[in-house]
Every structure is written in C-alpha cells, then in structure tokens.
Amino acid sequence: MEMENEHYRHSIRFIPALCKGCTHCLRACPTGAIRVREGKAHIIQDKCIACGECIRVCPNDAIRASSDELSRLDDYDFRVAVPTSPYFGQFREGVGLGKLVQALHELGFDEVFEEARGADLLVEVLREKLEEEESDGPLISTTCPAIIRFIQVKFPSLTENIVPLSAPVEVAARLARMRLKERKEAGEERLKGAQIGIFSIAPCPAQVRAAREPDGRYGSALDGVISIEEVYNKVMGILPELDREAQFGGSKRGLNWGRRDGEVEAVDERHRIIAVDGIRNVNRVLQDLEEGRLQEVEYLEARSCVEGCAGGVLTAEDPPIAKYKLGNMEERYFSPAEEGKREELQQLLERKEIFELEEEIEPRPTLHLHDDLQEAIAIMDKAEKAMNVLPGLDCAACGSPNCQAFAEDVAKGEVSIDQCPLLDEEELAKLEKEKERKEDSG
Q1: Per the domain annotation, does 386 fall within a domain?
Q2: Which of 138, 232, 397, 415 has the fewest CB atoms within 10 Å around its CB?
Q3: What confidence tens digit (pLDDT) does each residue in 288-301 have?
Q4: Helix runs in 159-278, H state only
C-alpha cells in the first residue's frame, strides 16, 4: 500500500506487506500512537511525534521514514545543503570537516551552509534570554522537534515553557536564504532567475516532519530533507579520491550542539541547565517538571534519541561513537579568528525574524472523544466500565498498547471488548448477557 498524504506529511510510513503484527513498535511508541489490527500495524497520526522509536525496533523493516532522495536536487537550479552536526560524526577519525563539506559539493550541492552556523547564533540569543527570564520553571529547548511534539501531545501544559526560538537547522536555512537573496540582489550572475532549493542532511524523521509541518512557523525555509543514511555510502565512495577541501563555516561550539550536553556546554556554566536524552528519560523529567519539582532549573536540553542528535535513527554510525567523534574534532578544522565574526553576529541578532518563532507553539491534545460533551462523557463512562473488566496486564496482545488504550478504543467503537485474549470467561459471559439484554430492550 502506498503511503497516504498524511503519512508523507508526518514522515513515518508502514509497509503492510512486510508487517508481521509482532507488536514491537506498539510497545516502543512513547505516545501510544500505534495499533495492530487484523495482524497489521498502523499509526494514529495525531499522536505520532516522528521520534523513530518504531523504526528502531521493527525486526522486519516494515516501518520507514519518508525523507527525500538526492534525485530531488534535479528540481532546482541552485542547490544548498544544510548538514546537521551528526553528519560530521559518521566517518572515520582523521577525515577533516573540510573534506566532508567538499563531499557534499561533489554530490551536486552548489553551496553548503552548516547547521552549526545556526547554533552559533542561537547561543548568543539563548544567553540573553536566560539573563532576562524570570518565569517559574525552565525554558525548554526547541532543538529536538520530536520533543516539541511530545510536549504538545502528552504534556500540553508545558508548551508555555518552550523557548520561542527556531531549531538551529531552521535558523541556518533562513540565514542561507537571506545571504543568497542579498547576493542575488547584488547581481550575482549564477543566481539570476535560479530556482533555489535548500535541503538539510538530517538524522531523524522528526526533522523531516518539522520541515514539512513546522511548529511555531508559518512555513520552513527548507525545501526538503535528505537523511544522513541516504548520503552516507555515496560520501564514503567519494572520500578516497577527494583531494580538495572546502571551508567549514561554523564553530566547534556550534558543531557540538548535536551531541548530548551540547547546549549545556555552549550556553554558560553559570546557568542551571539539565540535559536529558532518550525519550523514556525525557518523559520522566517532563513529569517532574509538570508536577513542579524542577522550579530551580533555568533551561532544559531534551533530546528524544540517546546521545542526542548523534543517535538519530537515520544515521549510520553507532551513537556513542558518533558523539565521541564530534567531541574529538580537532581545533584545526575550524574557521580561524572567531572574534572576527563578532560584528556579523551582532548584526544578525538584530534580524529577529531569522531565529524567533512567528507564533506560539500550541498544545495538541489527542484524547478527543467527541464534539458533543454529553456523548464524550458517555464514551468516558464506557471506557471506565471496560477497564473494570479487563485484566490490567498491559500485554498488548489485543493490538492496543495497554489496557487503558484498549478500553478507550472499545468505548469509541473501534474494537470489541471480546478481542482481549485474556478476558476471563466468566466476565465475557456477563458481557454477552448484558449485550443481549440491551438488544432486547432496544
């Protein structure tokens, strides 16, 4: 079955022909967005945060991310790559950043504008915001789009804590588009009449989803998202013959942003910041925050993947090794005279449209039972009654992630309660009698 538009927009798709109905994905999903019905898994799209945990655990390769292929470059006259930091941690030690930038030119990109440049700007903005901030509880980073959607879906009261800034990859794309516009207006020949395409080289399906449906923005500066997985083998083939290097435009601070603790190290040791990685760990920290137990913390760096963006499901290298490589990049790989960039940074700080969100990030509550209040109350009552007879083992054998989710599915009429394989025969008999009684009286 081909992926529907909704699946494309959300960046995760299931391949029914390969799905064995094993429930691995159902158990791994942090928001209960997956159901197994008639032996096949499918997504409840409103609950999906595109974290990729289902892709990570599927033993049958039946779940995939729908990122763009390199062939999409052919749609544009002038192509810009925005490689995210994890891209630079995928290859053997000793390969300079300049070579990895040049390899992207060899793949067909006319220019490379690293995510690290966006992070360099965000460091300055965040420092200012942390100095000004007087609200209760920490600001929450927007670097990880899966965490932003996780908060919207599961912790809607915390959306007000999200810092009103774009993620560094979006900031870098906006910087690139601004610079190209300036050059075009200055009369640069190759940009006259050119259709410009800007593509990130990304580690996860959440970044794919964020480019197609950005939170807090009316639209993304990116025209597409190509996975690190897509370019990895091609770059590996290019590197042995590559005898040229391009300039890496960011700082080491900006590059390390993609690692766990990257924001903590970049912002300032004087501020009280927590870094947490892995969606299960983030869930616990957000619970603490929601219950008012982290009021003394000023900033929360939260990443869905273990080891941060270096652990994205669309990367090639093992996450701890990728994180190590990023942290071990030698100073000689970076642009000299960072102080010379200070004036440019100050000018960019005045261009707030580059980094500030255009609208508030709103909650996305998913437990919408019915538009009519009375009907919604009736469904809740049905779910409670169903829950009272279910075994409470959360075995997932019914195709729902737990008994509570199954009870809600029953109440909404999506499944029948007798689909619980562990339901006590006596209880089942009672339910059958109750059903017959209602049919007779109706």
Answers
A1: yes
A2: 397
A3: 999 999 888 999 99
A4: 168-185, 205-212, 228-238, 252-255, 262-267
